[in-house]
Amino acid sequence: MLSTTCRNSSTKISSCLRTSTSRRWYGAPAAIQALDPRRDKTVQVTHSRGVNVIHDPLLSKGTAFSINERERLSIRGLVPPRQQEMDKQLLRVKRNLDACESPLDKFIFLSSLQDRNETLFYKLLIQNLEELSGVIYTPTVGLASQKSHSIYRRSRGMYFSSQDRGAMSAMVYNWPHDEVDVIVVTDGSRVLGLGDLGANGMQIPIGKLSLYVAAGGIRPRAVLPVVLDVGTNNESLLNDPLYLGMDHPRLDGEEYYSLVDEWVTAVTSRWPNALIQFEDFKYPHAYNLLKKYQNRITCFNDDIQSTSAITLAGILASLKARGLQQDDLSEERIVCVGSGSAGVGVCEGIIDCMVAQGRVRTREEAYKRIWMVDHHGLLGNNEIVDDAQPKGKRMNELDERQSCYAKQDMPDCLPLDQVVERVKPSVILGLTGVPGVFTEKAIRTMAQHHERPVVFPLSNPDTHAECSAEQAFKWTDGRAIFASGSPFKDVDLGEGRYGRTNQCNNSYSFPGLGLGVTVSRASRVTPNMFLETARVIASLASRSQLKEGILFPGVQDLRNVALAVGTRVCEVAYDEGVATAKLKPGELLADVVRGSMFIPDYVPLVHQPY
Ligand SMILES: O=C([O-])CC(=O)C(=O)O
Ligand SMILES: [Mg+2]
User: Fold this and answer.
1) Cα of 280 to ligand 2 centre, how many Å?
2) For 581, which of 19, 459, 484, 521 could close a Cys bridge (C-beta 3.0–4.6 Å)?
3) Where is the active site (predicted)?
4) DSSP for 285-299, written as a single string
């Protein structure tokens, strides 16, 4: 467990790392260092020349090629004569970006920059992470996904579709890079809270992987965004002549699972060490795939597991903010609205934590602390007659994961307002994808019973949040502890007081997780990695920040958060015996992790003939 004594977020993160690594040290993984020319800041070697260098976003320096490089790489005369360093380039791209009128224009501009010059793109992104994560990631990436087929410029990543059956093990060799550390894959069936967007879902893996690089320090050439295009049930996309995905309804059942299986076999045969992140798969496919693969390959599901880690971190931090014991979650009364992959995943993480804290004896006891509500109402007992809903309406739809939460002493399908009235929850979580589901009545009722009600509308993008920050603070007289999946501005409460908003998004958890898994070359992603991720993040805000309702460091600090999480995940990997990177004694683990993080600086580019 990391230190909880530090004060401000950046000193806190670094001293947490010291505390963490003082327990043990590991040597630098020589094999890993040797793979990346950027880590030791020496040179980058390429077989390419001329326009192939200028047009390769991983090699291109735009106008920053030196005279020497221009000569040796045969690009003399192919770029303007003046050599311009990165600071000037940054000035130009930032000005152009600021001139874009809409967030979608900014998205298109940044995608084009990423396609021209990844080093510059990542420098700009890291320097402006808070502002730009809202463009390349939620909320704007949601709009960009909806419009992806009409704003399409250039392909990024790989598509595997229903017409590629039998060809996938060959297709994976079409990807130009032998080293792939992280793959983010979606079938586009539940893109954020926006539903089925088919092949347009590609923008999500691209955005996630941009954060893997910017925050998690994974190398740009070692990431692979993937869409499994199994069709779409989105009629308006199917009828749109510009749509770029397969024009048939979604495959399901055996047809679906065998296609995913062919893909998993193909990618793991070419890149056996890569971490696979399943993203935005609809329930129950998300769970079925996780169950099938989590003990076979290095993989996890972002919406189930890393959303769970950050939400747990938020609840743990809120305990401290409310002057309660962080190591006792079992006194909380939690209403979770949403029973899909994220809802169930978040609740499982909370249950795991309650059990790990040793305050409940069994999981059954822990389930009693969570009331789950779906679009029908409470998951309750359909034997208890309630006029509000016809008896037996929904119970048989629940699977074994959801039915653990069904309350035997309350009527099934009880509406949210009545659930809140009866339960008097301290925490309400929204994972529905349905905007406005948190009613004024429900939140006001919470505020009557709790000094600081914890209100987390977590659905993305912001237009799909269960309530806005403004509503949460208005309905609680400014007393809410508020966190949302997508960013909301702090709310001016008057008289110099502000309602502080937190972004409780898995972007706080997955980059560090991927970093730790990559550096340790963990063969499995284990439940403890998520629990420890939550604990690390929950320990990062200072006492005074917590008092104000600030639960996490800001988005601008995501790189430091990833470093703290990555270090802890590495430790867990070695402790649990799943790490496979061969380490020699000599360095602190935190230094190894920090030293492995990609930094977007130009290094001399050297041509090497084949
Ligand atoms: O992408 C995000 O912002 C968080 C996430 O995984 C989701 O909402 O599906
Ligand atoms: Mg997601």
Assistant:
1) 4
2) 521
3) 137 (proton donor), 208 (proton acceptor)
4) HHHHHHHHHTTTSSE
Q: Determine the atom of ligand 1 nearest the C-alpha atom of 204.
A: 1
Q: What CA–CA distance (Å, rounded) separates 449 from 425?
A: 8
Q: Domains (ranges, CATH) in the chain?
A: 9-29+509-596 (3.40.50.720), 49-146 (1.20.1370.30), 153-297 (3.40.50.10380), 305-508 (3.40.50.720)
Residue nearest to atom 3 of ligand 1 (CA): 138
Q: What is the pLDDT of residues 109-145, one digit of tens each?
A: 999 999 999 999 999 999 999 999 999 999 999 999 9
pTM recorded for the entire structure: 0.92
Q: Look up 137 and say whether it is catalytic.
A: yes
CA-nearest residue for atom 9, ligand 1, is: 192
Ligand 1 centroid vs 393 CA: distance in angstroms?
A: 30
Token pair for 220? 């740009």
| Cβ(257)–Cβ(187) below 8 Å | no
Atom 7 of ligand 1, residue of closest alpha carbon: 192
Asked whether the beta carbons of 104 and 151 are under 8 A apart, the reply is yes
pLDDT digits (tens, 9 = 90+) for 440-484: 999 999 999 999 999 999 999 999 999 999 999 999 999 999 999
Among 77-86, 365-374, 388-397, 589-598, the range scoring the smallest mean pLDDT is 388-397
Distance CA 573, CA 506 (A): 20
Cα(560)–Cα(592) distance, rounded to whole angstroms? Answer: 14
What's 390's DSSP letter? -
Give me the catalytic one of 208, 320, 407, 474.
208
- Please report which ligand is nearest the Cα atom of 186: 2
For residue 463, report the distance from its CA to the centre of ligand 1, in Å: 13
Which of 227, 231, 224, 228 minimizes the C-alpha distance to 276? Answer: 224
| 29/134: higher pLDDT | 134
Point out the catalytic residue in the list 26, 137, 405, 602: 137
Q: What's the CA angle centered on 189, arms 523 and 234, to 5 degrees?
A: 160
| Cβ neighbours of residue 594 closer than 8 Å, sequence gap 6 or more | 563
> pLDDT per residue over 494-540, tens digit each?
999 999 999 999 999 999 999 999 999 999 999 999 999 999 999 99
ipTM of the complex model: 0.98
Q: CB count, 10 Å around CB of 347? A: 29
Q: 127 with 90: CB under 8 angstroms?
A: yes
Residue numbers belonging to the annotated binding site for a divalent metal cation: 279-280, 303
Residues with CB under 6 A from ligand 1: 138, 192, 280, 302-303, 460, 485, 505-506
Q: How far is the CA of 179 from the centre of ligand 2 (A)?
A: 25
3-class DSSP assignment, residue 454: strand
